């Protein structure tokens, strides 16, 4: 085999062996680059006699051309292989279901949802939110609310007391949200319109009672508020909350130390099926306590009961949540069982509003 033929088969073998474009580029430079083996051959042409040049010229140029063609063909193959490898590696299976975003997977607890719902309703009526601490003084939880020192109503509350402080004062876990009434009247000037959702505590546990539970208190104080207003507020609330057009309500005389007169409120419902239906039927269900704020309570807050009057109510949030959403056992609210919250929880971005719908 001639020298040129040797060179050609060497270069073509190297081209065939190149497995990446970078390898191939090295082969190209080694053959056709300035100092490449084929270029060196071309340089020899100048030194040849015309006859020799007539013979070697086409032979070397032919070599150059075939090497160039082989390089081009090999480059195409390698480029296509590289593209295929990339397509394979970057393949997306569009038939796979999307993984849910965290905001889709999380759930809002029904108690939080119901607090948001009732806040939306009362805010629309012009109420603002007031809050107080869970650890309360005996004075604000009882005395200022017109519970006499040894009145039996104090015992009805199954109170959790804290260890007495050095000065002998015994703090307690508030048994109701009513102390926030006192805090609000002591710190704000009438007219007052507040609701006070929050945690409350009583030593009690069964299907409908847990030691920690939630209440919402409502308080209206100004110069002319009367029971007619109270009934309207509660009726509008119940219709909006239970998302019904009509609701039957019954006000029964009752007793609370901090209201006079005091009433308990029942709403009409139907209990004939498996679930309680609000707004229809002939059964009654108690949902809250209310009344006109007792003059002693108004006086205890430094206001003149001859000038100011108003009404208040208190309601169990967990209880109305159970009713509205058909949850049978209150204890499950606080078990932190993911399966329960997945089932009864609410989507995080569906905030309850009156215009968009409370519960959708
Ligand atoms: N604090 C009462 C309770 O826990 C509920 C209550 C009744 C609150 C009547 C009120 C009210 O504001 O007027 O049983």
In CATH terms, the superfamily of the largest domain is Bira Bifunctional Protein, Domain 2
The N- and C-terminal alpha carbons lie at a distance of 88 Å
What is the rounded Rg?
43 Å
Overall SS class: alpha+beta
Mean pLDDT: 92
Show unreliable segments.
none
Pattern of helices and strands = HHHHHHEEHHEHEEHEEEEHEHH
Largest sheet: 8 strands, mixed
Number of domains: 2
The shape, in one word, is rod-shaped
- Estimate the helix proportion, in percent: 40-55%
- The total of helices stands at 13
Taken as a percent bin, the fraction of beta residues is 15-25%
| Ligands | 3,4-dihydroxyphenylalanine
Q: CATH topology of the largest domain, what is it called?
A: BirA Bifunctional Protein, domain 2
**Could you name the CATH class of the largest domain?**
Alpha Beta
From the 3D coordinates, which CATH architecture of the largest domain would you assign?
2-Layer Sandwich
User: Using DSSP, what is the number of strands?
Assistant: 10
């Amino acid at each position: 085999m001639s020298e040129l033929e040797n060179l050609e088969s060497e270069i073509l073998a190297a081209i065939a062996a190149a497995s990446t474009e970078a390898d191939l580029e090295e082969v190209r430079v080694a053959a056709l680059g300035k100092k490449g083996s084929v270029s060196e051959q071309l340089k020899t042409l100048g030194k040849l006699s015309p006859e020799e040049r007539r013979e070697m010229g086409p032979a070397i140029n032919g070599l150059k051309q075939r090497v160039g063609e082989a390089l081009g063909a090999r480059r195409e193959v390698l480029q296509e292989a590289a593209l295929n490898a990339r397509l394979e590696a970057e393949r997306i299976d569009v038939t796979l279901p999307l993984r849910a975003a965290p905001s889709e997977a999380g759930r809002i607890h029904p108690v939080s949802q119901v607090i948001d719902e009732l806040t939306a309703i009362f805010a629309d009526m012009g109420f603002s939110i007031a809050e107080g601490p869970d650890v309360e003084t005996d004075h604000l939880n009882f005395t200022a609310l017109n519970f006499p020192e040894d009145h039996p109503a104090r015992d009805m509350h199954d109170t959790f007391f804290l260890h007495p402080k050095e000065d002998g004062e015994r703090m307690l876990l508030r048994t109701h949200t009513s102390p926030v009434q006192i805090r609000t009247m002591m710190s704000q000037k009438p007219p007052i319109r507040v609701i006070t959702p929050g945690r409350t505590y009583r030593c009690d546990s069964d299907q409908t009672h847990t030691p920690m539970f939630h209440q919402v208190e409502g308080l209206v104080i100004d110069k002319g508020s009367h029971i007619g207003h109270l009934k309207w507020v509660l009726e509008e609330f119940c219709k909006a909350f239970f998302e019904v057009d009509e609701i039957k309500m019954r006000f029964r005389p009752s007793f609370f130390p901090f209201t006079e007169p005091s009433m308990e409120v029942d709403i009409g419902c139907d209990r004939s099926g498996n679930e309680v239906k609000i707004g229809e039927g002939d059964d009654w269900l108690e949902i809250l306590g209310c009344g006109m704020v007792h003059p002693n309570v108004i006086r205890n807050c430094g206001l003149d009961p001859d000038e100011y009057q108003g009404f208040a109510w208190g309601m169990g949030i967990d209880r109305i949540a159970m009713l509205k959403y058909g949850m049978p056992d209150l204890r499950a609210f606080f078990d932190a069982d993911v399966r329960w919250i997945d089932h009864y929880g609410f989507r995080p971005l569906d905030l309850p509003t009156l215009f968009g719908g409370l519960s959708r």
